[in-house]
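In this section we walk through a basic example: taking a raw amino acid sequence and producing a predicted 3D structure, encoded as discrete structure tokens. The instruction is simple. Fold the sequence below.
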Amino acid sequence: MLTSKGKKYLRKQSHDIQPIFQVGKAGVNDNMTTQISEALEKRELIKVSILQNNFDDNQAVADEIASQTGAHIVQVIGNTVILYKESVNNKQINLP
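The resulting token sequence is shown next.
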């Protein structure tokens, strides 16, 4: 699990990152979670944007993505979810 110190560090690191995935009215599907897993392996830290036409609770969407990808939720802020998963082959972020 991420410590509060680790989450604070990751929030700071994610400040300049743009969301690379969008969850629309169709919600989260297998294809999306596969792509998010691949992106997490390459980048370790990503943002996912939840569009206005998705009527699911933002925290529920974040929980579903995290459980299906094995990622940690760093923060859900507004319609943006910040996810972190330590990479096996491309380790770039060293948590404090």
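Looking at the output, two observations stand out. The mean pLDDT is 95. The chain has three helices and four strands. In the next section we compare this with other chains.
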